[in-house]
Amino acid sequence: MRQVAYVAGVGMTPFGNAIDKTLNELACASIADALKDAGISKGDLNAAYMGNAAASVITGQVCVSGQVALRSMGIGKIPVVNIENACATSATAFQQACTMVTLGVYDVVLVCGYEKLYHEDKNKTFSVFTGAIDVTQTDAIKARLKARNDAIGQPLDMSGAGSSRSIFIDIYATWAREHMHRYGTTQRQLAAVSAKNSLHGSLNPKSQFRSIVTIAEVLSAREIVAPLTLPMCAPIGDGAAAVVVVSDRFAKKIGKKRCIRVNASSLHSGWDVEEGELPMVSSAVSELYEDASLGPQDLNCVELHDASAISEIKYYEYLGLCEAGAGGEYVESGASSLGGRVPVNTSGGLMRKGHPIGATGAAQIVELVMQLRGEAGARQVSGARVALAENGGGYIGTDAAALVLSILTKE
After folding, report:
1. Residue 56 CB-density burial (10 A; 0-12 exposed, 13-18 middle, 19+ buried)
2. How far apart are CA 141 and CA 133, in angstroms?
3. Global confidence as pTM
4. What pLDDT digit, counting tens, does each position of 322-344 carry?
5. What percent of the chain has pLDDT over 70?
6. 167 vs 275, more confident
7. pLDDT single digits (tens) 132-189
8. Cα dist. 4→79, 123, 227 in Å?
9. 403 and 324 in a common domain
C-alpha cells in the first residue's frame, strides 16, 4: 500500500549575486531553515537528495557535493543522492524523494537545491548552459534553429550564441517568433509577462529583483535576440532552497496542521516524437492530471519555468489554463496576475526571483507551500488549496530533456 507524501518544512535563501558566499553556506542556510520550519532535528532525517548542476564548472566541486555540504553542518551516515538534471535538478530531487516516501522506504527525506552561477569569467557561466544540450550536436541544433526561423521569414543571427549569451536565448527567441507567426501573439504580450512577474517579485523578499517594470519599460529595454528584450529573459543567480518531505505516519507524529500533501509528482524525459504523437509536455500534463484526479479548472496557483516570457505563455497553453495560441491574450487579460483566475509565478518567477539552476525547482515548491499554508504575505492567493509546479530543463532535438510536474494540495 502506497504511503502519502507531505511537505513538512521549507527554507530558502535570497536569490541573487552571492559570489562572496560558498556553495556550502548557501545550502546549509536553506537546510537549517527547512528543518526549523518542520520542527525536526538533523537526527530525524532518513536520507537526502541533493540537487546541483553547475558546481563542477563554477567551483570545481565534483562527485560528492551533497555529502560535502551536509557534513559541513554535521549531517552524515544517511544515504545521500547527488542529482544533476539541468534546470529540473532539484525538482527531480523532490520527485525522487516523494517517490521513496510513497513507497514506504523512508519517513523523513531532505531535498536541497543549491547553486552558484556568478563567476568572474562569464564564459564559465555560459558554458553551463551550453552543456545542457547535446554538445556533439551543437552545429546541428544551430542549423535547425536557423532553418526554423528562415521558414517563417525571420533570419536568425546566432554568432553570439554560447559566447555573449546563452544558446537557450536563441531557442526561446525561435519559440517566440513561431508563436507570433502562427497565432498573432505580440511583443507587447510577451512584455506583459515580464511586467506581471516584476509586480509579483516586488512582493517577495527573497527575489533577486524587487523593482517593478512596466510594459513600456520592458519593450524599450536592451534587445537580446528579437523579439526578446533583457527583462523577458531569466537572469543567472546564486541561492539555495530546501524541502523536508515526510510520510503520512510521520506527519501525524509531528502534527499535520502545516503539512502540505504531495498529490502527484512525475518525472519525464524527452524523446524523438514521431508524426501523430503527443509531444512530451502534453502527454506529461495529461498523465499528471489523471494521476492527481484533478484538472486545470481545480488549480488556484502555479509556479512554472519562465526562463523567458514565451516559455510562460506556452505553458499556460500546455497546462490547459487557456486554449492553444491564447497564451498572449491570457496574460494580457490579467488572468495570471494576483487577483486573477489562476495567478502564475507569484514568487516573481525565474525572471524576477532569479534562476540558480539547481535551486529553481525546490524554490517553486517553497513558494507553493507558503501559498497553500496562507503564509505568502502580500502576494498571498486568497483561499489557495491546489497548486501546480512545472520545471523543465535541457534541450535535445526539438524538446526539453527533462520535465518535472507536481501538484500540491491543502487538506
Report:
1. middle
2. 9
3. 0.97
4. 999 999 999 999 999 999 999 99
5. 100
6. 167
7. 999 999 999 999 999 999 999 999 998 888 778 889 999 999 999 999 999 999 999 9
8. 21, 44, 45
9. yes
Number of domains in the chain: 2
Per residue, the 3-state secondary structure of the chain, as one string, reads CCCCEEEEEEEECCCECCCCCCHHHHHHHHHHHHHHHHCCCHHHCCEEEEECCCHHHHCCCCCCHHHHHHHCCCCCCCCEEEECECECHHHHHHHHHHHHHHCCCCCEEEEEEEECCCCCCHHHHHHHHHCCECHHHHHHHHHHHHHHHHHCCCCCCCCCECCCECHHHHHHHHHHHHHHHHHCCCHHHHHHHHHHHHHHHHCCCCCCCCCCCCHHHHHHCCEEECCEEHHHECCCCEEEEEEEEEEHHHHHHHCCCCCEEEEEEEEEECCCCCCCCCCHHHHHHHHHHHHHCCCHHHCCEEECCCCEHHHHHHHHHHCCCCCCCCHHHHHHCCCCCCCCCCCECCCCHHHHHCCCHHHHHHHHHHHHHHHHHCCCHHHCCCCCCEEEEEEEECEECCECCEEEEEEEECC
Give the residue numbers marked as catalytic.
87, 355
Q: Which of 382, 383, 384, 390 is nearest to 407 (CA)?
A: 390
Cell 539547481 belongs to 358
Nearest to 204 by CA among 88, 351, 330: 351
125 inside domain: no
Task: Indicate the pLDDT class of residue 1, thresholds 50, 70 and 90.
Answer: low
**168: its cell numbers:** 537557450
Same domain, 255 and 313: no
Range of the structural domain that residue 27 is part of? 5-120+237-262
pLDDT digits (tens, 9 = 90+) for 64-79: 999 999 999 999 999 9
Which CATH number covers residue 405? 3.40.47.10
Same domain, 243 and 225: no
- The answer on pLDDT for 266 being more than 90 is yes
75 and 90 fall within a common domain? yes
Bond before 227 cis per omega within 30 degrees = yes
The pLDDT assigned to 275 comes to 77
